[in-house]
């Protein structure tokens, strides 16, 4: 009986962590990045049109989310490694600028962010679950989408970003 529970637990973990394909409620590989516009932490406006011409990584998060707090440092590392050739943007889901700014400062984050007090931009990309990471090519087509965490394979993320 103990062996059965071990096998079931391993199977569930495998299924949860290998779910790299987005669910039906999300933008996925091959889709275009939805049209959006946000005000960044430095006051500039960033739109999907502004991402055209360069690869991008968009991460949706909320700093009260434990999975997001585990993922964001990996995004920060990727930003430090690839930020000169990939456009990074972190967009909060229903979180005030002050709260995001405080967490960013306390955790040494330098990834450009946009604090959104509602979930309107997020809902253009997905309906549930954060963090969400979308990597798109210079043509604005999604190449990779992470939809569950802590399961993103960060070695694979590094490989994808390195290939852009």
* Count of distinct structural domains: 1
Mean pLDDT: 85
Gyration radius, in Å: 16 Å
CATH H-tier superfamily: Glutaredoxin
Extract low-pLDDT stretches.
2-23
Structural class: alpha/beta
The description of the largest β-sheet is: 5 strands, mixed
Q: Biggest sheet: strands side by side, in what order?
A: 5-4-3-6-7
Give the overall shape, derived from the CA principal axes.
globular
Order of helices and strands: HEEHEHEHEHEEH
User: Class in CATH?
Assistant: Alpha Beta
Give the CATH topology. Answer: Glutaredoxin
What is the terminal-to-terminal distance? 48 Å
Proportion of helical residues: 25-40%
Q: What's the CATH architecture? A: 3-Layer(aba) Sandwich
- Tally of helical runs: 6
Structure, described:
This protein is an alpha/beta fold. The protein has one domain: Glutaredoxin, CATH 3.40.30. The protein is built from six helices and seven strands. The strands form two sheets. It has a five-stranded mixed beta sheet with strand order 5-4-3-6-7, covered by helices on one side. A two-stranded antiparallel sheet has the order 1-2. Strand 4, helix 4 (about 95-105) and strand 5 (about 115) form a beta-alpha-beta unit. The termini are far apart. Mean pLDDT is about 85; it is low at about 1-25.
Reconstruct the topology from this structure.
Blueprint lengths: L1 H16 L19 E3 L5 E3 H4 L4 E6 L4 H17 L4 E6 L4 H10 L6 E2 L5 H6 L6 E5 L5 E5 L7 H10 L1
Parallel strand pairs: 3-4, 4-5
Antiparallel strand pairs: 1-2, 3-6, 6-7
């Amino acid at each position: 009986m103990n062996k059965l529970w071990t096998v079931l637990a391993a199977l569930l973990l495998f299924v949860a962590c290998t779910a790299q394909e987005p669910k039906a409620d999300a933008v996925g590989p091959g889709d275009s990045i939805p049209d959006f516009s946000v005000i960044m932490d430095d006051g500039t406006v960033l739109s999907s049109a502004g991402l055209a011409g360069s690869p991008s990584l968009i991460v949706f998060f909320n700093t009260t989310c434990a999975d997001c707090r585990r993922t964001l440092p990996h995004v920060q590392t990727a930003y430090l490694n690839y930020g000169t050739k990939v456009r990074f943007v972190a967009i909060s889901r229903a979180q005030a600028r002050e709260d995001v700014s405080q967490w960013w400062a306390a955790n040494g984050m330098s990834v450009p962010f946009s604090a959104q007090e509602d979930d309107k931009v997020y809902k253009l990309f997905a309906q549930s679950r954060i963090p969400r990471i979308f990597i798109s090519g210079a043509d604005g087509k999604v190449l990779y989408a992470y939809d569950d965490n802590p399961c993103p394979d960060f070695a694979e993320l590094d490989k994808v970003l390195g290939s852009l």
